[in-house]
Amino acid sequence: MRHFTLGDFDFALPPELIAQHPAAERSGSRLLDGTGAAPVDRVFRELPTLLQPGDLLVFNDTQVVKARLFGEKPTGGRLELLVERVLGEREVVAHMKVSKKPPVGTELRMDGGFGATLLGRWPEEDGPLFRLAFSEDPYAVMERHGHVPLPPYITHADTAEDARRYQTVFAKNPGAVAAPTAALHFDEAVLAALDARGVQRASVTLHVGAGTFQPVKTEDIAQHRMHSEWYQVPAATQQAIAELRARGGRLVAVGTTTVRTLESWARSGQASGDTDIFITPGFEFRQVDLLLTNFHLPKSTLLMLVSAFAGYEHAMALYRHAVESHYRFFSYGDAMLLART
Q1: Residue 44's pLDDT band (boundaries 50, 70, 90)?
Q2: Which of 202, 262, 221, 233 is nearest to 58 (CA)?
Q3: What is the reported pTM?
Q4: How many CB atoms neighbour CB 171 within 10 A?
Q5: Would the pLDDT of 214 be above 90?
Q6: What is the DSSP secondary-structure string of 187-250?
Q7: Strand pairing partners for 290?
Q8: How far, CA to CA in Å, does 221 sit from each of 9, 62, 217, 224, 308?
Q9: How far apart are CA 121 and CA 131, in angstroms?
Q10: Which of 16, 46, 106, 275 has its CA 20 to 30 A from that of 286?
């Protein structure tokens, strides 16, 4: 087994290929079919024709919340919170962007008129996140006063278009601060075509955290500390997968978050909980047969996952083709379909 380093997952990406806005139509984006030896350029609405009756498509049904909130310290200094997780009735953990961190017990005045009391760090005393108590229900204040937490490589402020398009059409469980982007391409017409084709559907939930954008900083990728996210595999989905295996169909994971959820469940036996699974070349997949995914950042953990799934040489060749063919990259970009090597 080859020993991979961080440099193995680097590639040159022209900045103009980073999609700043979604395609005019969800299913009008491009689809790179990488299931064969040679890449085939398609349009996303062709996806149903690439699947077989009896296949099971598994989605992540998490809902992106307007997790970016602004406010100020008692001194008047401005700050920004990015809510990573709602812990209880009014408690949250969040990233804080501020010139000087306020002491524990500080009452923050948030835009919109609600308050936030700083309780400490999370998950440990010197943890990277902050635990706060809001004066009102967190989901309610995020919906009223929050902003769509667009990824760091999208340069415009969030708009009404982002509120609609940085969300899947089947999102139902609020808690994500980043969209499961491979699922953004699905619209009602594609879902209807999948039904007509006899492709079945099921869902899992993984609340995508801001850690998904966290860069790998160690050349030895084994030393990278993976972020943790909460997931759940419902009983109905477990049953659908058992029936799929009985009939010999293929499990098609929509997005890397679905892969991480299903493979975490397969390894731990836990249908819900926190996962920090880190999938790199050499990983043995137990659940997923096909993967639908967007194009990921150079040197990212997601590119490592894709390389583990489709094979390193094949995955990197597909990325070279995507760059040469001017595919659109990242959250609002195009998609590709991969078979497990």
Answers
A1: very high
A2: 202
A3: 0.95
A4: 18
A5: no
A6: -HHHHHHHHHHT-EEEEEEE---GGGGPPP--SSGGG-----EEEE--HHHHHHHHHHHHHT--
A7: 252, 339
A8: 10, 28, 8, 5, 13
A9: 6
A10: 46
Distance CA 289, CA 228 (A): 24
DSSP annotation of 105 reads: T
Cα-Cα-Cα-Cα dihedral sign, residues 185, 309, 257, 122: negative
Q: Which of 100, 102, 81 is nearest to 92 (CA)?
A: 81
Q: Are 334 and 295 contacting, i.e. CB atoms less than 8 angstroms apart? A: yes
Structure tokens at 29: 């984006």
Residue whose tokens read 């990728």: 221
Structure-token pair, residue 322: 């995507």
Cβ within 8 Å of residue 66, ≥6 positions away: 142, 143, 145, 146, 147, 148, 149, 163
* Beta-strand relationship, 40-43 and 173-176: unpaired
Indicate the length of the chain as a whole number.
341
DSSP string, 243-297: HHHHHT--EEEESHHHHHHHHHHHHH--SEEEE-----TT---SS-SEEEEE---
pLDDT in tens, 290-317: 999 999 999 999 999 999 999 999 999 9
Strands 78-86 and 68-72: antiparallel
The strand pair at 56-60 and 251-254 is best described as parallel
CB-CB contact of 293 with 335 (8 Å): yes
Distance of CA 263 to the CA centre of its chain: 15
Tell me if 19 sits within 8 A of 333, measured CB to CB: yes
Alpha-carbon distance of 304 to 281, in angstroms, equals 7
Q: Which CA distances in Å does 21 have to 14, 139, 151, 325, 329? A: 16, 26, 12, 19, 11
Does residue 335 sit in helix, strand or coil?
strand
